[in-house]
Amino acid sequence: MKENLELILLRVSQRPDIDKGELDVASRLIINSVCEGLEITRAGIWLYDENQTLVQCTLLIDKGNDLDNESLVLTRRDFPHYFEALDSGRTIAAHDAITDVATFEFAEVYLTPLGISSMLDVPIRHRGKMIGIICCEHQGKARQWLDDEMVFAASLADLYGRAISANERADYEQQLLEANRTLEQKVKDRTKELEAAQEKLVESEKMAALGNLVAGIAHEVNTPLGIALTSVSNCKEELKDIYRDFENGELTEEGFKDFEAICSEGLSLAETSLMRAANLVQDFKRTSADQTSLEIEEITLDEYIPRVCNPLKPMLRKEQIELSIDVPSDLVITTCPGIIAQLLTNLISNAQRHAFGPSVDNEVNKVSVSCGKSEKGIVISVQDNGKGIPAELHKKVFEPFYTTARDKGGTGLGLNILYNLVRQKFNGEIDLVSSPGEGTTITVCIPVES
């Protein structure tokens, strides 16, 4: 891929706007980047209705006519050949849009009046389903869309799918915050909203780059919350019984002592469970906050690394993967904690996604995080006992857009971004040791002065 297209994709993928949950901001960033990379002035986002009988333009940027929004609808009934092409789920590269079998129906009503000669439509997918397209429209003399340009546009469409997941995640997180502010009332009413919001949050987070982390936390927090709710409900029932005995003049000293013992045990269990949930949430909040912060501070690695890794354990347990951490107690470094957090999250998530599978026959699947000190600086290693990587692919795994999981939403930028963080931000070194059947070890060396 051309270097300028790679740089645009890398820049967009690293922008926090993609994962903030503000879909309008992310949409404009993506469409402006499409225009910049393809050197066109007109592009838009079109989304299916529920039954896929039409596509509606949700954002259209036309720099030639100084437009940044336009309400347009295309129906299957009016443009059957175009929708037949969309149904294939593949990129439509109409080099000559006037005569192309997929787009010729637009010639008189759309293409000719606007001077559009070539169209490139790439599918937007969310949760494995095609939900719309990014439409790139070239005005002027017809052009031949290059393979690099089609991959570039498709990668931006993948980022739009990620932005949709982030938008859903933000909505669900807001619902959770509101539920927590009224937790006492929610307990009394045995609300269903919290459970629904948590379930949706888990499902949405599975689709995001940071998603597995939040999914694991939501799952893990649900257990102590459920225990706490059960304990409080039981205490309420006991309170009703004791009050009834009091009203009827049947309250005895022994009955009151039994009541006190049961409630003390129940409230103690509820307190312990809520503290466990609070600690999990605190670890997650710190890790999430760090990954969006570039502040420099001194950190003690034997405290910081477990705090980053702990929220990942639920995600790994779902895949029957054990996580072990070995960090000496005397390692201190002055650096950007957010980059350390992103580095560890990327490496562990990458091992969880790629290292294991049906071909791996281990008694126990393991991922190990270790840390030490060398002459060059601090050394952090993430090792797995998975299927390993053939020698001929060792260099490829750090190249942008190389992925074996594109069908699962992978963009191939994870390890490439990690490589650039280590080399550019830390001026450090990154090394991969792996062979088929022997697992993989990725080692990062960070100079102490970083």
From TrEMBL:
EC nos: 2.7.13.3
Annotated keywords: Coiled coil, Kinase, Phosphoprotein, Transferase
Keyword Kinase set for record: yes
Protein name: histidine kinase
Top-level taxon of the source organism: Bacteria
Coiled-coil intervals, chain numbering: 169-207
Record-level Gene Ontology MF annotations: phosphorelay sensor kinase activity
